[in-house]
Amino acid sequence: MSALDNHINSFTQEQFDQIGADFDAIRRRVINDLGERDANYIRTVVKRQRQFEVGGRAMMMLPPTWPLGVASLSLSKILDNMEIGHNVMHGQYDWMGDPALHSKNFDWDTADTAENWKATHNFEHHTYTNVIDRDHDIGYGLLRMGDDQPWEPRFLLNLPLTVLLHVFFQHFVAVQNLKLEDYLVYKTKSREQLAEEFKPVWAKMRKQLAKDYVYFPLLAGPFAPLVFVGNVAANLTRNLWACSVIFNGHFPEEVEQFDESVLEHESRGQWYVRQLLGSANFEGGKLMHLMSGNLSYQIEHHLFPDIPACRYAEIAPAVRAICEKNGLPYHSGPFWKQALSTWKRIARLSLPDRLSPFKKSKAQSVDKPYTTSTDAESLPLAA
Amino acid sequence: MFAINEIQPGRVKQLVNSAINSKLMHRLTYPHGPSRFVELFDRTAVIDETIGTISAIEHPTERSVRVSVRPNNRWNGFLAGQYVEFAMEIDGRRQRRMFSPAQSQHADGALEFTMAVNPDGVLTRHIKSSARVGDHVILGNVGGDFHLPETRPEHVVLISAGSGITPVLSMLRTLIDERYQGTVDFIHYCRSADDALYASELEACEHTLPGLRMHCIHTRAGGARFSAEQLEQMVPNYREAHTFVCGPSALLDATRTLFDEQGIGERLHQEAFGLATHATGEGESGGEIHFKRSDRTTDNNGETLLEQAEHAGLSPQHGCRMGVCFACSCTKTAGRVRDLRTGEVSGDGEEDIQICVSAPMGSVSLDI
Predict the structure, then answer these.
(1) Residue numbers of the domain that contains A23
(2) Confidence of residue A369 (pLDDT cuts 50, 70, 90)
(3) Crossing angle of helices A191-210/A169-176, nearest 10°?
(4) Could you tell me if residue A383 is inside a domain?
(5) Residue B30 to residue A207, Cβ atoms within 8 A
(6) What is the pLDDT of residues A23-71, one digit of tens each?
(7) Within 13 A of B70's CA, how many CA atoms are on the CB side?
(8) Which chain A residues touch B293 with a CB distance below 8 Å?
(9) CB contact under 8 A, A210 and B317
(10) Does B75 touch chain A (CB under 8 A)?
């Protein structure tokens, strides 16, 4: 048991309630202040994204402007998915009452359907953040991302599969809701059930594929191959970037994972603390924050997923202050450092624990932070 | 083949519209849709919303404002007396109310809205003090069964108070455009001559429509409020007419009582300013409201589910807040609710409800 666990286990219910009240106060402050500034911000980002999309697709049709076109469409897809789609579908701008920016209606430029995303991401991932067996984002059913996940021979491929996940990220995310591993590995899902669940996914995927790889290339006439390759490049750029940003948010070594038992009678304060311990920020300039959809403020995002992301930078000092007051860690580091730490974890976990040459960092154990320390010690993995 | 000069401007607009709305455009702009790109160039060229542009703002009285709104191609017209959902964005939020256009249903061009400024109303105060020519208005559903019957009755009685004049004025102007041969009695209540809307126009109407008799009553300058005797005196044969009333609840209640007593309830047509005047009964507080998808629970205080969701910090999609537009409909998974318009109480099974006009009867679970 690490010093960290002991610290958290020493929190009383009153202390958790106080932490909860402190975070609630930050949230209230922002909610009461929402208005024209936030509306203008998201509208400006949307406008730029649409301009990049129109410009990118047009420039791609001629050889001299092709590289600019690819860059422009890549930017468009990244903005669409990160700062717009992800955040709008969280309901961050529902208060505006604009149907085009409402979580109920918005759909994004990627293979995943908005409905499936809201189920796996908004509900599963944000409610059960980093709880093993409940948060499917831990490894996407493909990788071994936590020590608590028993090793299986297929995890020898942890590293190449991670590369594959990055390259085809939009399609992996699109089928995430199908829990393919239940069919392929664990045989708990029937082929028929899978086919049924794949229908709505395919309906969206097909339209996306047709747009990028049939209609736009055809529009370019003799330059069809240019546009085809350009769209492959733009989708790939977005895939690599989005996947890296997301991995940086939850998988650097110091980020914690939790046992399912923490969910029992979890109070609002405890929920906040779990979100905090299960997320990590990365640092960068304004452009970095914009391009990552402000997921560089992953901690703030997990504490307040429905607050407009453009506000995270503003509230980060207050969040940090609460952490300091309570001796809670606030995981943050440069992008490359968080990425390196993530890849190290993936490499380490590809081998069975006893064979791994990498040292397991102390915060890596599965926490059961809200119980007394005697309870926690009886957990096989906390020991 | 068309000769170029045979193509009407309206036809060009139609062609542009159908190009924007074509299958190909939808495929190329998937999943956002053509409107989200067209609006980069012209906000009013969208095909998924009826956008109007304010073309004039006047201040007929101190407590009212009149805006003319030029709608885009999607505008499909209305029937005199109906209301239109009218929204503007104020401090980042879309503020929506229902207003009845005052112009004839046969008039082309701008829609005319005359509204009383509500001292507590965000939208009307904004329009009175800050709206500018060129601002955009989002026009939503057209609705309401408060309109003239298709076969025009021989005798029409129009009764209005304050800004309730707009739907009945629309009826009058429509009848004028149709060169109506019957009789119209127009009874309008307002505080004083200073507060009177459309006074000079109504005077002029008496010349254009021979069958029109105006009765203007200034309630703060010696005029009496509505009563059976007053109506009897002004329109002795009102029982044979079709009567259309728009105004505050006191006027609606008084006319309803009178017409029902006389056994001619079906000849009375009414329009209220808002839901509040029509609400029957309320919810029952106690128990909890559970918002399943957001994983939030709040103590039930008996208010509408929309209000309670908002107090709980959620922003469910909504529109008119009076049960008209269905923007707020969502699935109730458990519990009973009262429809505040009818007073009817639902079963406790799963069903779609409009949360703006539904108040919980004890614990309720919603899928939002």
Answers:
(1) 3-377
(2) very low
(3) 140
(4) no
(5) yes
(6) 999 999 999 999 999 999 999 999 999 999 999 999 999 999 999 999 9
(7) 10
(8) 123
(9) no
(10) no
In degrees and rounded to multiples of 5, residue B352 shows phi and psi of -85, 135
pLDDT at A3 over 70: no
Residue B89: strand, helix, or coil: strand
The three-class DSSP label of residue B129 is helix
Helix ranges, B60-208 (H): 122-129, 165-177, 199-208
In one letter, which amino acid is A259? D
Phi-psi sector, B95: left (phi>0), alpha (psi -120 to 50), beta:
beta
Taking the Cβ of residue B77 and every Cβ of chain A, the question of whether any pair is shorter than 8 Å is answered with no
Domains of chain B from N-terminus onward: 23-143 (2.40.30.10), 155-273 (3.40.50.80), 288-366 (3.10.20.30)
What are the tokens at A14?
């009153």
Q: What pLDDT was estimated at residue B344?
A: 84
The verdict on residue A382 lying in a domain is no
For the record, the structure tokens of B304 come out as 């509408």
CA–CA dist B357, A72 (Å, integer) = 47
Residue A342 falls inside a structural domain: yes
Whether residue A91 and residue B295 make contact (CB cut-off 8 A), yes or no, is no
**ipTM associated with this complex:** 0.88
Q: Which residues contact B200 (CB under 8 A, 6 or more apart)?
A: none
* A188 touching B (Cβ < 8 Å): no
The torsion angles phi and psi of B288, rounded to 5 degrees, stand at -130, 150
CA B241 to CA A136: how far, in whole Å? Answer: 69
Q: What is the pLDDT of residues B280-329, one digit of tens each?
A: 557 888 889 999 888 889 999 989 999 999 988 888 888 777 777 777 88
Q: By the 8 A CB rule, do A283 and A298 touch? A: no
What does the DSSP assignment read for B41-101?
T-GGG-SSSEEEEEEEEE-SSTTEEEEEEEE-TT-----TT-EEEEEEEETTEEEEEEE--
A38 with B92: Cβ contact below 8 A: yes
Q: Token pair for residue A5?
A: 């666990």
| Number of domains within chain A | 1
Give the C-alpha separation, B240 to B243, whole Å: 9
